[in-house]
Amino acid sequence: MPGAVSTTVVVVTWRGADHVTACLDALAAQDRPHATLVVDNASRDGTAALLAAHPSAPTVLRLDRNVGYAGALAAALARVDTPYLAWLNDDAAPAPGWLAALENALRPGVAAVASRLEHPDGTMQSAGVRLTRDGHGADITAEALPTAEAASNTAEALPPAEAASNTAEALPTAEAATNTAEALPPAEAATNTTQAFPLPEAASGTAGNPEPFGFCGGAALLRTDVLRAVGGVPAAFFCYYEDTDTAWRLRLAGHRVVLAPAARVRHLHGASTRPGSTGFHRWNERNRLLMLLRCAPAEVALRELARFAAITAALPLRRTLPRTPRRAVPDAANFRVGLRCRVLVEVLGRLPASLRQRRAIGRRATAGRRAVWRTWAGR
After folding, report:
1. What is the pLDDT of residues 311-321, one digit of tens each?
2. Range of the domain at 284
3. Where are the beta strands (DSSP E) in the chain?
4. Residue 288 maps to a domain
5. pTM, entire model
6. N or C: less crowded end of the chain, CB within 10 Å?
7. Which CATH number fits the domain that encloses residue 235?
8. Quick check: is 199 in a domain?
């Protein structure tokens, strides 16, 4: 029926007094009817008063403690009763027509739609997320995206429970990480949203909309029932990689993720978490490994865990060697031994739970982990 509400837009805020009003103003200007649910992560900066006074009168779920972006999304999911839900950062301001573009792209077989996120100066920040060969989720910044061969490849999927074995495609090894005379792998120097990779032109003869592996959780649309069916939101991640983990589970369950280029969003990025901070790197490094343990082929997950541990062990020795360009240790928080040891302790402490979750994800899967990896890793 005309005017029916199909989408609940979930805005997660924490200390968002400086920017959440702009977000809500932009939502109020959308031409597609929707419900707005703001999850306030126990802000103490006046955010609650701003939400109560906003003319759009959003529904507010105020939590008694900060459970992070992932935890807030999980709390919101239990309260959403519309067919679709959108994830939106509180420092994001969608352009007019954003929601309409997302909803129009949610065709049969598509479970999630990525927005085009832009920096305040208009340059592209993310047009979806690609899966790197070491299992990072990296924002796509190229204008040209590969089109989907997508679901047809995963139709030939290996059974999810099949034991790990050699694949036809050679995978990178951890040897460089264990050899202190070699350079550290450059992909370790940046994680998740700090990485940005252009993609090659689409292969000729392919058809369909540009299709990334996943989406940036700062602004995306998902089918509510599908999200619940694949296990919801990994609340324990706190923040970062909840989006790429979700994309993994959608792909394993045979669903597609597409980009809606007309769904434009101005995004400040990192207004709450300060990219480059110790917490940012800790969550990124930890959650990438947890995601791989939950979703990726066993050989990939074990390789990346071993590689992370080997680099951590090599760092103290590397700093004692004569400094050369190949031996230089990046000046980044995720190369601090203390932070990396904390990540390893947290990952190993969660290993039993991660393996239980892995089995549950495998039972729901219709595509093999290795088939998804071969299709998307490194594209």
Report:
1. 999 999 877 77
2. 7-376
3. 7-13, 35-40, 59-62, 84-89, 92-94, 110-118, 124-126, 129-131, 137-140, 196-197, 219-223, 256-267
4. yes
5. 0.84
6. N
7. 3.90.550.10
8. yes
